[in-house]
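U., I forgot to send this yesterday:
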Amino acid sequence: MCSCIRSVREDHLVVYFNGKIMTKINDSYNNLKYGKYDGNRIFYKFDDEAEVQETYDDRIFNCTYKGETMQVRKSEDICKAINNANLDDYAIVFKETYYEIHKIELITDLVKRSYGERVQLRNDNTFVIDDRFMVDDKATAHYGKRGKGREWDKRWEFLCIVVKGSPRKKGIKTKIGIVELDEKLLEILAKINFLINPNMADTVFTSQLPEWLTKTMKAEREAGV
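Result:
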């Protein structure tokens, strides 16, 4: 295969393609596309379960891994994996994109298996714990304000929670293998765990709550609820 690359500079390539001289950014994608594929769509097969086919749009790939196929736009990472014939690196990129696409589905299943009905994932990607606490998608905790008739209204008050220790890495088992959770979700889960069974002797925590809520939670604890 004849290379389209005519000159390599520090920050760009000079390529000859379709009868024209063009400059392209000097990166992994352009070096692969114009250095090995003559400017044509990139195709690469790692093994029977993993292959890449570039779409008709530059830098967008149809990627297959363990029976799953999806579009991946991380062109630099994909091309580095191809250049190095590194299936492990390809799997990492694929799993990251799979997580981004299926994140809500995976989280919903994880929360349901871990906490049952005590934690509800709402449409705005916030977690409501026991209908009295909430952790939003930025890992900020809140408590609900009680309205008339002892019913909750839709307003939430900020609640400062500091969970001791660093969240441990956690993965979810999927059809393509173990997919790692991101740091923000780990922080969210740590705060949910705290609010599922809070330390009522923690005065930093209880001092932020309205008196009626503290009394309710202590009474539930004494009753074994």
